[in-house]
Model the fold of this input.
Amino acid sequence: MSSVADFLTAEHKTAFSIEVLPPVRGKSIEQVFKTIDRLMPFNPAYINITTHRTEVQYRDMGDGTFQRFTEHTRPGTVAIAAVLKERYHIPTVPHVICSGYSRTELENELIDLEYLGITDLLVLRGDRARGDNRFIPVEGGHSHAAELCRQVEEFNNGKMLNGKEHEPLGERFTFGVAGYPEKHEEAMNIESDIAHLKEKIDSGAKYVVTQMFFDNSRYFAFVERCREAGITVPIIPGIKPLTSLTQQSLLPKTFHIDLPEELAKEFRRCRTNDDVKALGVEWGIAQARELKAANVASIHFYSMNAAASIEAIAKAVY
Ligand code: FAD
Done:
C-alpha cells in the first residue's frame, strides 16, 4: 500500500478524509465504528486518530477529601489505528504527540506501530496540560514537533535512542504535521509560525494538515505565504461543520480561530442546535465546494459529534 504522503502528492480528484477521536476511557469503540460506517459510502482515503495526553484528575473519596491522579482520558490510539485498518482496509494515521511522552515512550510507540505495519503518522507537539499556561515537556520529552519529526527520521535511518541499530521491518514511517492558517496561538506572528512549519518540513514531514477554519480566504492566503516561504508539500485543509450553539464562544476560545462575520451573523440568529446544524451543513457545503474547485488533494473533516453533518456535506460535494 502506498503511503498517505505519496497518495496526497499524486494526481487525483479531491479526496475525502476524516479524523476520529478515541472514545472516552471506559466507553465502547462502537461509536467510532458508527461514525465511520456512516461515512464509508464516500470512500475515505485515510482515517486519522487523535492522541490525548494524560490529564490530572481528582477522585472524590466520599469523606470530604479528593485524591489526585493522572490518566489518559482517551486512551487507545494505536489499538484503534490497528482495528480500523483491519476492519475497513483503509490507511490509518495515528497522531503521535510529544505532550506527556518521553523520547523513550515515543520510541516504544514507534516500535508498536512498526510491528502493526502502520507507517503513516501525523506528528504533533500536542496540547499543553490543562491548567498549565505554557507547554512543559515531560522529562526526556520534546519541546516542539520538529524535534519529534527528527526522532522519527532517526528511527527510519536505523538509529535507536540507545545507540543500537534498528533493523527496519518494511516501509519507513512517513508523516504529516499541523499548520495554522490563522496562526498558532503561541506564535509571535504568522511569519515565525510559518518558519517553524518549514522547520518541520525540513525535518522530514511530507504534508501539512491545517487547523480548522471557516473562512476559505484565510486558507488560500496561508497556502500562498507557505509557498513564498519555500514550503512545497501538499497543504490539506481541515474543516469542521458547526453543530451546537456553544461553539459560538468555544471554537474561538479553544482553537484560536475567527468566524467570518457573514457566518457569525447567521450563527447569532440560530435558536437551537438544529438551527446551528443546518447552518453548519450549508456553510460546510460552500466551503468544501470552493476547496474542491481549487483542486486541493483532500478535504479533511473533523468528525467529532458531526458525522451526520459531514455525511450531508459529502453527499452534496463528492
Ligand atoms: P509545534 O509545531 O511544535 O508548534 C507549537 C508552537 O511553537 C507554535 O507556536 C510554533 O510557531 C512554535 N515553535 C515551533 N518550533 C519552535 C522553535 N524551534 N522555537 C520556538 N517556537 C517554536 N493535539 C493533541 O494533543 N492531540 C492530537 O491528536 C492533535 N491533533 C491535531 C491535528 C491537527 C491537524 C492540528 C492542526 C492540531 C492538532 N492538535 C492535537 C493540536 C496541537 O497539538 C496543538 O495546536 C499544539 O499546541 C501545537 O502542536 P504543533 O504540532 O503544531 O506544535
Q: What stands out?
A: The two ends are 24 Å apart (CA to CA). The longest strand covers residues 54-60.
